[in-house]
Design goal:
It comes from Methanosalsum natronophilum. By secondary structure, the chain is an alpha+beta fold. It has 3 helices and 3 strands; from the N terminus they run αβααββ. A 3-stranded antiparallel sheet has the order 1-3-2. α1 crosses α2.
Amino acid sequence: MDQLMEKDQMILRIARNPIPRAEAWQAIGQDVSYAGFNHRCDRLIRAGMLNSFKQYNRRFIQAADGGVTV
């Protein structure tokens, strides 16, 4: 369970500024599959902690609090 929370915090830290999902996945490391990373992002989006938007035919993510992460 701690590893899940740690990965979620890593995603939120990386997404302080808008970043394409694929680049965020590469930034946290390849120890998790891209499908697993997308599942985590979708869960964070449903929880209201992460925003997702599409721009230039790419899917971006950004921390919902405008980048202020604790």
